[in-house]
Amino acid sequence: MVPVLTQSLGTSSTASLHPPSTPLRSSSARALGFRPSFLSRPLLSWSSFPAAGLRCKVQRRERRMGPRCEAAVTEKEADEASGEKFEYQAEVSRLLDLIVHSLYSHKEVFLRELVSNASDALDKLRFLSVMDSSLLGDAGDLEIRIKPDPDNGTITITDTGIGMTKEELIDCLGTIAQSGTSKFLKALKENKDAGTDNGLIGQFGVGFYSAFLVAERVVVSTKNPKSDKQYVWEAEADSSSYVIREETDPEKLIKRGTQITLFLREDDKFEFADPTRIQGLVKNYSQFVSFPIYTWQEKSRTVEVEEEEEPKEGEETKPEEEKKKKKKTVTEKYWDWELANETKPIWMRNPKEVEKDEYNEFYKKTFNEFLDPLAHTHFTTEGEVEFRSVLYVPGMAPLNNEDLINPKTKNIRLYVKRVFISDDFDGELFPRYLSFVKGVVDSDDLPLNVSREILQESRIVRIMRKRLVRKTFDMIQELSESENKEDYKKFWENFGKLLKLGCIEDTGNHKRLTPLLRFYSSKSEEDMISLDEYVENMGENQNAIYYLATDSLKSAKTAPFVEKLVQKDIEVLYLVEPIDEVAIQNLQTYKEKKFIDISKEDLELGDEDEVKEREEKQEYNLLCDWMKQQLGDKVAKVQISKRLSSSPCVLVSGKFGWSANMERLMKAQTLGDTSSLEFMRGRRILEINPEHPIIKDLNAACKNDPSSTEAKRAVDLLYDTALISSGYTPDSPAELGNKIYEMMAIALGGRWGRSESDEVAEGANSEATSSEAGSSETTEGEVVEPSEVRPENDPWKD
């Protein structure tokens, strides 16, 4: 490379690049390194050679030295581009305001954050006291006390934890987003001999500042057991500074721990200084914190008091010694500490040690239910994601159907290290069709945002959701296999529709969903059966699962589609709920058996007699063509049926269109698209039964008198009747009614005789009708005198 450079730049340029005091290194070293000796800032100046000349020479020798020369130029440009570094500046008061009012959507979470900090302080003390028992001293038990003062508008939260020194006050409270708990955990991890404490909650270092959501001033008084001094930290809500001083008032001294006093804003005094409200927040957010939490509550008790009897009228007043005193029971009010977190986190215990009654009691208390759950499961998952959970199947469905499929139901309570985070989810942990499941989920390492309110979408959440869904299916499967069949029957009545919804929305869990489905069938009209039972009852030659979708069980049993299948002892599933047909169509197969709708064309039962079919086709081929000609576009074609035994005909739908049941459902949609009805409606095929007398009569009419008006009317009526019996809705019900009335009149035709007066009246009516039709000129009716002729059977005749 050296000869190339000397040829390109010239001798003078090369000399200017290398000072006399610096020896020229080997070409290989320069090729690999390009140290500052080659292109150092003091030695390389643009005055030595023009930049354009360098570019020109580089371009001429591009193939041999271009990359190396470009690297050298890049290094020089980077050296010149490097500038002076500056630290970001922030307006502290504005930053604090953003943290307080942007991270949290509800003011009430301030108590959760402060109680969590107190719990961490107690955890630290408990951990450190194992190595140094003198830290506990005589400062009392490890506990948290919360005392609201409605009169002064303050809340005081006191813990007997580790406390803080002056340096820690400056480091933890004076530095925004600095987590003392996080630093403590880091120190534990570095010191492997000491182990780790996973009970610690804090991680972001901003939870303390949530106090300014409701407080205009915060005072922190704290004492570390290793320090002889107690310090007070004080700050205003809108200030960018804070004050630290030593506590000198003997009445305010504490033995150990931290005491936080919140001076509430005017708007928040009424709500958050209320003892009942504070106790409710503790029960909601911090009910399962591992340390006792006491709240200052007003209580009542009955006491007996003595009072003097009043003298009766007319009696003299007795001396004090002789006055009788009577005892009276009165109710007096007093203030005392009350334990707010009595319920223990049942999910932290070993499932083998928990009785069923304990699970039921926990369920009722946590979710305010009055019925026992139908089933429960308690499990712990380890590995990539570690969490504990207790899930329940409720005893009954919500009364409001909208709550039944609402993914935002508050049925799953999420905890992180036993601190309640949220119960407002939109399908992150459970799909919509399993939104009825209730339970608690507790994890130590969920990916939460800083406010602990939003579960961030991540791979961990997807894994967690997958395991929760799998455990739920296991729980429901155990319920279906239990000896008490009534429990699963009750479950199916309440939540069966949701599992069918899962068949539509969750194709990945079809294998877990299908064994849980239940349907009525032609062989089990009283009790529902599973698909496994259907497959077990199948004959040897049956290769499919047959079903019929209708609007009721009664219409399914009497439908003409099932006649031949019932005759051949083939079981048919009855889908009587609106969601059933769509769910089955999404499943398509079960255990390699296809689902076949018997109301559609090309039904194959597997035992057809080809010779008989060929003969019937030849015999009735002319009739099929004649009937198709009479019906026109109402049907796509007319053919011999394989599914009828007692009905004369049936109207089946095409293989790829809507069935009669689906067409009925789509027409009933409130916001349905009527323009798609004609497009999606399947073609209609009229199938006739060659064994039925009506079809035989029509076959004779077709051959002997194809232009017969009565035969044509019979074909029209036959189609309309098949339309109704097959589940379709006639276009004009009134027109169909008139046809039936005409046929009834012809059929009855005076069979039981009529009275002469009825015949006369009928004749008069017919004459009047003909005269009205013929004489439209008459505008006024004629007056007819009553007849003097009396019939012989007149009872009023003399």
Automatic annotation (TrEMBL):
GO terms for molecular function: ATP binding; ATP hydrolysis activity; ATP-dependent protein folding chaperone; unfolded protein binding. Residues 762-778 have a biased composition (Low complexity). Residues 1-16 have a biased composition (Polar residues). Residues 314-325, 787-798 have a biased composition (Basic and acidic residues). Residues 1-28, 303-325, 754-798 are annotated as: Disordered. Residues 106-268 form the Histidine kinase/HSP90-like ATPase domain. It comes from the Eukaryota. One of its GO terms (cellular component) is cytoplasm. SUPFAM superfamilies: ATPase domain of HSP90 chaperone/DNA topoisomerase II/histidine kinase (SSF55874), HSP90 C-terminal domain (SSF110942), Ribosomal protein S5 domain 2-like (SSF54211). SMART domains: HATPase_c. ATP binds at residues 113, 117, 159, 164, 179-180, 203-208, 258, 452. Keywords: ATP-binding, Chaperone, Nucleotide-binding, Stress response, Transit peptide. Signal peptide: none annotated. The keyword Chaperone applies. The keyword Lipid biosynthesis does not apply. Belongs to the heat shock protein 90 family. PANTHER family: HEAT SHOCK PROTEIN 90 FAMILY MEMBER. This is Histidine kinase/HSP90-like ATPase domain-containing protein. It comes from Musa balbisiana (Banana).
